[in-house]
Design goal:
Number of helices: 0
Strand content: 35-45%
Order of helices and strands: EEEEEE
Structural class: mainly beta
C-alpha cells in the first residue's frame, strides 16, 4: 500500500457516513478483516477493513473509488 499519514483524501458517503474531505492520521493492519487495513481520518472516523483498491485518483465523475487521493 502506498498511502501515507498526512495524505489528503476526498471520500464518498455511504448509509452511515456523509461525504467529505479529510487527512489520514493513522494506518494499521486490520484485526478483523484478513489482508486489509484500517485508516483513521483527522475527524476521528475509522474506516475499517480497506484494501488499496478502495483508493484512486481524484478526477471529475469518479464514482468507482470510495476514497480519492487529493495529493
Amino acid at each position: 500500500m502506498n498511502l501515507k499519514i498526512g495524505t489528503k483524501i476526498h471520500y464518498t458517503g455511504d448509509i452511515a457516513n456523509h461525504s467529505g474531505e479529510g487527512e489520514i492520521t493513522a494506518i494499521r493492519p486490520s484485526k478483523w478483516y484478513g489482508q486489509t487495513f484500517d485508516v483513521t481520518l483527522d475527524d476521528g472516523r475509522v474506516c475499517a477493513g480497506l484494501t488499496s483498491t478502495a483508493f484512486g485518483p481524484l478526477r471529475p465523475g469518479n464514482r468507482s473509488d470510495r476514497f480519492q487521493i487529493r495529493e
